[in-house]
TrEMBL record:
Organism field: Leuconostoc carnosum
Protein name: Uncharacterized protein
Amino acid sequence: MQQLQRWPKWLNRNEAHQYISVADNTFMKHYVKNGKVKAYPTEHGIRYDRDEIDEAVKHYYD
């Protein structure tokens, strides 16, 4: 039996800031605008890679 995944690989802006439990403005200011997380335009809108977000959080103070 396969377990459902809570967080998909590609997150929209709302899901991305909830994934790391920060406010939307904090996510945009500290992660996206500083270049730690890239925004990828797709046919479904802007998406953020969950693995990039994990790395950015891991190296927040670097």
